[in-house]
Fold this sequence. Notes:
Oligomer: single chain
Helix content: under 10%
CATH superfamily of the largest domain: Glycosyl hydrolase domain, family 43
Low-confidence stretches: 1-32
Radius of gyration: 23 Å
Strand order of the largest sheet: 24-34-25-30-31-32
CATH architecture of the largest domain: 5 Propeller
Bound molecules: beta-D-fructofuranose
Largest sheet: 6 strands, antiparallel
Number of strands: 34
Shape: globular
Amino acid sequence: MTDELDRRTVLKTTAVLGTSTTLAGCRGLSRGDGTVTDTTGATRAADSEEYRPVYHFTPPSGWLNDPNGMVYHDGAYHLFYQYNPDDTDWGSVHWGHATSEDLFNWKNQGSKLEPEDDVLQFSGGAVVDSENTSGFGRDSLVLTYTGHHRDTRIEDQRLAYSTDGGKSVTKYADNPVIPSNSPDFRDPNVFRYEPDDSWRLVVSRVSATNDRPAGIEIYRSEDLHDWTYESTYEKRAIHDATEWECPDLYELPVKGGDTKWVLTVSADGGRVDHLVGEFDGTDFSLDRRVVADKGHDYYAAMSWANEPQDRRIALGWMNNWRYAEEIPDPGWRGTMTVPRRVTLVEDGDTVDVRQSPAGELTTLRGTKLTSLDSERLHSGDEPLANEGVSGRCLDIEMAIAPGNADTVGLDVRKGEEQQTTISYHTDTEMLLFDRSKSGTYFDTASSGATSADLQPMDDGTISLRVLVDRSSVEVFANDGRLAMSNLIYPDWQSDGISLFTENGDAEIVSLDVWELSLTQ
Ligand code: FRU
């Protein structure tokens, strides 16, 4: 076991379990040797493509974790990512690189920031330096990342740049630009602060030092080289977080010219918080916290800088450090979520966050498999199963009026003994996602189910957008009020879809199911 893998294992299990138990002690059913054990107890080869999503980004082979350096430049969205090409576990991380014109069809651009003998290249961001403030060149891409020293675990902040649109990336000769002599200080992310036309950098002080509390530190610079410390937004403001990583700070419109700032932090290896508040160029202050995704698998989320339509589009690593190295290992591991648009809306006295899949997703819609309109659903009815509607890469849009039913829901990736169930429970007003019968099981620390409060919309309906892509299901409910992302590993043959109600009748107000595929 390498030093860094050791560090990763210790770091993550300590944070998540609050103990020094190692991940090896938390056994999953994926063996890490190219085999998986299915729900019947049989062991079989994990086929590298049966789990590979079609319209989600995955590494060609090896390991992927956080998205990095997300920036739009000269006609292309750039997605860099934490990448270990040599192993399907976390290890000697590089920055992998891919580009896309539409956020879904990605071209692999190889690996850009190679690890050094003593320093790994941890997560960070990227900006377009259109005014050449850095002296690297007009419109250069400037990447910010953490240098993680293998021996001492000290982490400092560094620059790299590209003057050919990301084809080649050069590490800055005078790194680090924010030196440090302490560990656990990482993930620098830069943005332009328009009111005074200068740069800001947010970075996580994961653990406190003698003179700095744990939290998100904010720095200011005119030229991306010289950084002045401005403030810390302290982690103790959020009581249930022990470790923050991967900060992202941006301003979004609310209504009538008003704006709010959103500080996104990834907490404890398995959750993303949207901290909605104010930022005055120096200090961030919190109005409220909104958990970004109520599933198990949304982490290290980042958003694209310089987005051409002025949208805030974020994407996360669809995984959870609790078991990231335990999921089936068919020669690659790690998937990004679909890019999702983040907006703010006024909701009563508060400002709320909405998230929905980037609009470009609809261009991937192919055959419409079925469409229902005002259909009454009685206990025992299975309209979709009877029609033979099935698929592994689907976009399902539905509105349900739960009526007098206790439960109304949808099974996807359904087989003889498998199903992934998304259900609405009227008595508790909760949406449940149950993956305990989804297939190969790896999440031994939870029941497999995730849940969230969800009140019907003003017209009494529940709206669901369900994105199925071979080994994942993402649910967006009630026009983006709720997101829930979960990995699943069903058998290839389990491809059915079925609607159901329990103890009463419900109405399927509308339902449309499309097959999704890439266009290029
Ligand atoms: C988050 C993270 C980052 C770090 C990277 C290392 O998942 O721990 O804080 O930079 O992964 O791969």
